[in-house]
């Protein structure tokens, strides 16, 4: 159904795609894999008419296509679920789904009833109940993801591109999506599926095409390859173990955070935890179990009903993130682009943004040489791969963007770090680098709270794990008890303590 041949694309002197081929059959789910920066998203933007290829051809059902813009691709039966949401935050789900192709009555008025009925029908296929009449800005990230998916499905596309569609979904929601994809496969829809979760590739996909550094590496049947070989195709080398070794024994170290009587909502469950110097404390549990809210409550970024916090022995609770930063707490948020970075700024500006006071030469001037030297130093420490400190952050891969956020906190001297979903949307090679960086930091005396929905990540990286359920910590496990059975048992059946 789809043939892309010899696709080349450059942005100025930077060559992004070097004659890449892709062939997708009707009724198959075809994985497009590669590290961040391999050219996957650029390839798909060319398919959807968002970008224009410098060279190469696109054929759909044997007919050559030349898309001038996105509407041309839609008319040819191509739909895409973008990795970065393309929703208008202050419009409702219905208004977003039909934006630019609104249904009208015979009098030329908006047919809101027809649009609402169709939106409910498409969301029903996904097995989710998303509020239709509130701005999407008020929806959860997962609900916004389903609106994005529904927007593409409503096009009745014959070729559907899904770029990291599961990144914000729970396992149950992913299962619903895969059922929908199976139905679409039966209907003859050709799907291009991009994901960094290799287990999903082996579960849902039929064939795989791998790109590396903008080059075509190869295409193979899923049944003819294993994970190790697939990773080697993607990164050009074998990765024997994603996770660095844990310390064999954690020495008795001082408590840097002692959080007690945490109550996220009034009359809700109560819990407590401690974070020690030089450890990685994992926060595990199902989505919505209170992991992120608990971490944010200790730095004054979430309005918990009650919480008592001692930071390095000081019992004063930070009133807001600014005070938490002054007390040495840095946050790598779940959504790095929306909450962790100013993407139009350079690496140096992002690294310095919280800490310009240290570069003040006089009352109204900055010592730019000092700022540049400091930025280069922390970039080297965290191994940011970029031409230089003045490169815009939005040109970097996801893994390097994460490293820029970490570099900012190292530059600000924050020995307590909260990492919320630190490897979401990051390829397997960059994950290994982030994991090693985290372990290096703890060896240097930093303390890390790691919130993750990926159980292998929690097990492989954590020295201890706090397991959450229904808004509270129901167990803290360590040593051999850090295993999937133990953690999931507590996460799904653990007893929660409530107060009157």
Brief synopsis:
With 500 residues, the chain is of the alpha/beta class. 33% of the residues lie in helices and 24% in strands.
Labels describing this entry:
33% helix; globular; six-stranded mixed beta sheet; Rossmann fold; transport; ABC_transporter-like_ATP-bd; 500 residues; alpha/beta; 24% strand
Description:
It is a single chain. 33% of the residues lie in helices and 24% in strands. It has a six-stranded mixed sheet, with helices on both faces. Strands 15-18-19-13-20-21 form a six-stranded mixed sheet, sandwiched between helices. The longest helix has 16 residues, at 171-186. It is globular. The protein folds into two domains: 2-235, Rossmann fold (3-Layer(aba) Sandwich); 255-493, P-loop containing nucleotide triphosphate hydrolases (Rossmann fold), CATH 3.40.50. The chain has helices spanning 40-47, 70-75, 93-97, 112-125, 141-153, 171-186, 198-204, 227-235, 291-297, 321-326, 336-340, 347-352, 368-382, 398-411, 428-443, 455-461, 484-493, and strands at residues 2-11, 14-24, 29-33, 55-60, 63-65, 78-81, 159-163, 190-194, 207-212, 215-221, 255-263, 271-276, 280-284, 306-311, 329-332, 360-362, 365-366, 416-420, 447-451, 464-469, 472-478. By secondary structure, it is α/β, with parallel strands linked by helices. Strand 4 (55-60) and strand 5 form a beta hairpin. The chain has 17 helices and 21 strands. Helix 13 crosses helix 14 (398-411) and helix 14 runs parallel beside helix 15. The model has no long low-confidence stretch (mean pLDDT 87). Keywords: ATP-binding, Cell membrane, Membrane, Nucleotide-binding, Repeat, Sugar transport, Translocase, Transport. InterPro entries: AAA+_ATPase, ABC_carbohydrate_import_ATPase, ABC_transporter-like_ATP-bd, ABC_transporter-like_CS, P-loop_NTPase. This is Sugar ABC transporter ATP-binding protein. Residues 2-238, 250-495 form the ABC transporter domain.
């Amino acid at each position: 159904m789809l043939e892309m041949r010899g696709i080349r694309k450059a942005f100025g002197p930077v060559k992004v795609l070097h004659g890449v081929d892709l062939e997708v059959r009707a009724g198959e789910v075809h994985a497009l894999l590669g590290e961040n920066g391999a050219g996957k998203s650029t390839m798909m933007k060319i398919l959807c008419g968002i970008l224009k290829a410098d060279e190469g051809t696109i054929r759909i059902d044997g007919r050559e296509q030349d898309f001038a813009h996105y509407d041309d691709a839609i008319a040819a039966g191509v739909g895409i679920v973008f990795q970065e949401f393309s929703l208008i935050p202050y419009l409702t789900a219905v208004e977003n789904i039909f934006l630019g192709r609104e249904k009208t009555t015979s009098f030329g008025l908006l047919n809101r009833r027809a649009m609402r009925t169709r939106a409910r029908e498409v969301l029903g296929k996904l097995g989710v109940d998303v509020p239709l009449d509130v701005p999407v800005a008020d929806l959860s990230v997962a609900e916004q993801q389903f609106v994005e998916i529904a927007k593409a499905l409503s096009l009745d596309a014959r070729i559907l591109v899904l770029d990291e569609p599961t990144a914000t979904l729970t396992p149950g929601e992913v299962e619903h999506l895969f059922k929908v994809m199976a139905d679409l496969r039966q209907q003859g829809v050709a799907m291009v599926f991009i994901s960094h979760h290799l287990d999903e590739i082996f579960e849902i996909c039929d064939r795989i095409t791998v790109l590396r550094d903008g080059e075509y590496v190869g295409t193979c049947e899923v049944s003819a390859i294993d994970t190790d070989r697939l990773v080697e195709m993607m990164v050009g080398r074998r990765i024997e173990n994603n996770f660095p070794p844990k310390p064999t024994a954690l020495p008795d170290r001082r408590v840097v955070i002692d959080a007690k009587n945490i109550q996220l909502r009034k009359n809700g469950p109560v819990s407590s935890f401690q974070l020690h110097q030089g450890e990685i404390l994992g926060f595990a549990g199902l989505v919505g179990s209170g992991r992120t809210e608990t971490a944010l409550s200790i730095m004054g970024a979430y309005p918990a009903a009650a919480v008592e916090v001692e930071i390095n022995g000081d019992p004063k609770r930070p009133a807001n993130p600014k005070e938490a930063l002054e007390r040495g707490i840095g946050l790598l948020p779940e959504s790095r682009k929306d909450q962790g970075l100013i993407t139009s700024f350079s690496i140096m500006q992002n690294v310095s943004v919280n800490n310009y006071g240290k570069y003040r030469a006089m009352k109204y001037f900055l010592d730019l040489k000092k700022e540049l030297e400091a930025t280069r130093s922390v970039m080297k420490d965290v191994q940011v791969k970029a031409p230089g400190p003045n490169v815009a952050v939005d040109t970097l891969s996801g893994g390097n963007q994460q490293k820029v956020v970490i570099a900012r906190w190292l530059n600000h001297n924050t020995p307590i770090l909260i990492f919320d979903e630190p490897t979401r949307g990051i390829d397997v090679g960059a994950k290994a680098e982030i994991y090693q960086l985290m372990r290096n930091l703890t060896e240097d005396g930093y303390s890390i709270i790691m919130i993750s929905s990926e159980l292998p990540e929690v097990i492989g990286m954590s020295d201890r794990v706090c397991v959450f359920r229904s808004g509270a910590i129901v167990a803290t496990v360590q040593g051999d008890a850090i295993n999937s059975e133990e953690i999931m048992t507590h996460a799904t059946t653990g007893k929660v303590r409530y107060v009157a």
